[in-house]
Amino acid sequence: MIASKNIGFKSVLTGLALACSLALPALAAEINGVKFADTVKVGGSDLKLNGLGMRTKVVFKVYAAGLYLTEKKTTPADILAVQGPRRVTLVMMRDLTSDEFGQAFMTGLNNNLSQAEKTKIVSQISKFGEMFASIDGLKKGDVLNIDWIPATGTQTELNGKKIGETVPDVAFYNAILRIWIGDKPADSSLKPALLGAKS
User: Fold this and answer.
1) From 3.50.70.10, 3.40.190.10, 3.40.228.10, 3.40.50.880, which CATH number describes the 26-194 domain?
2) How many helices and strands, by DSSP H and E, does the chain display?
């Protein structure tokens, strides 16, 4: 009689544990205390976390970065060829002025694009520059999402609020991605992390 009660109690506990685990949002990974969801919804599609890592400069942590795709990809060429929505999420680890972030953005583009490639998207680069100028800067803990949505364009959100104009050309979004996964990435250890390499 006692044994059967114990079995019943264990079953209840197991059921409660399972119910609680199903109620919690799935968290795929964590880096330096920053948690990234396993999936996010962009443009009506569920995207999976492809990889995440930390952008460092000298010894300072600048931001945690996560790349979301419709399905896992491990090479830059495959990621740039994805037809569906994509997202890069940056979680700031320190304060940056808008000038500092804008300068880092331009350095990343200059390092990974030819002059001809930059000329084709110069107006879009200018729009992004205006977006940086429109904000005071980025604070520690801020979350910046840079999304590609087919038939819409590149949209940027800061802490859930849309900032800047929508930029329609996919070549521009791919140029942004090359800042992190191009031939001369902003951080050589961040690139393989975004490509899904195990740390």
Assistant:
1) 3.50.70.10
2) 7, 11
